[in-house]
Amino acid sequence: MEQIINGIWNTWNQPQLLSLFVTVLICIIISLLVYFKVKKVKPNQAPKGVALIAEAYVKGIDNQYENTSGGKLPKSKVYIFTLGTFLFIGNWVVIFGLEPIVTSYSVTLTLGLSTFLGIYAVKITYQKWRMLKKYINPLNIIGDFSPLISISFRIYGNIIGGATLMFLIYSVCGYMWTLIPGMSNHEWYFFAPFITPLLHLYFDLFGGLIQAYVFSLLTTIYWVSEANTPEKKTRKNKKIINTNPQLY
Fold first, then answer.
1. Which of 75, 83, 89, 108 could form a disulfide with 156 if both were Cys (CB 3.0 to 4.6 A apart)?
2. Coiled-coil stretches, from where to where (predicted)?
3. By C-alpha distance, which of 248, 220, 222 is closest to 78?
């Protein structure tokens, strides 16, 4: 029994799971807070405080989606809003000293799979049987998997790359301390606070925000591109030339 418990603990004892739990908890708390604050706003009263911030945030995402989609797939707007918010909060949990949720490839692969399946859902809805013409060439079948691979590895690679770079910088700072005479046996990150704050601001906060935006934007573009139904060919009116010589 003890071995089973230890096996389960070793399997689930991942820092990203705690980050995922905290992310969902923050989303629920913010949703409830915004709901009750917006509910108190009267129709003839201008929103302020939390309600004003929530309105500006929702309106910003709404305008961005409309500009990207051109008014297509209006029902997908809710999912894109949820996706962007989830990734934004999940990447910013580093403020609490937690790992970003996308440092686990299982998270990015799951979200990428949702985008991938959404592509086929839109394709079947708008193109119907015409989508099968594409697969006459077998290479197109392989090419259809490229969005799943690219969109999942893009956000994962960027966040992991930033974290790896920060680890190397901290290692260098610790090594610099050992170069001080008498401190060769003690690795202390004394120089790190003078170098890393701006880098944390860029890689953790700004980078996390940009990657959440890019992932949501690419999902929108992939889906909208499949909603473009081919225009029906129209017959050109043939010009009738009257060769009656009496008209000339």
1. 108
2. none
3. 220
Distance CA 153, CA 141 (A): 20
248 residues of the chain, pLDDT tens digit each: 566 555 555 656 677 888 899 999 999 999 999 999 888 888 788 888 888 888 899 899 899 888 888 888 888 889 999 999 999 999 999 888 888 899 888 899 999 999 989 888 888 888 777 766 766 666 667 777 788 888 888 888 888 888 888 888 888 887 777 777 766 666 667 777 788 888 888 888 888 899 999 999 999 998 888 876 554 444 444 444 444 544 44
- Tell me how far apart the alpha carbons of residues 110 and 170 are, in angstroms, rounded to a whole number: 31
Residues 6+ apart with CB under 8 A from 157: none
**Same domain, residue pair 32 and 79:** no
* Residue 67 falls inside a structural domain: no
Statement to judge: residues 93 and 180 lie in one domain: yes
pTM: 0.77
| 207 lies in the same domain as 144 | yes
Q: Is residue 188 part of a domain?
A: yes
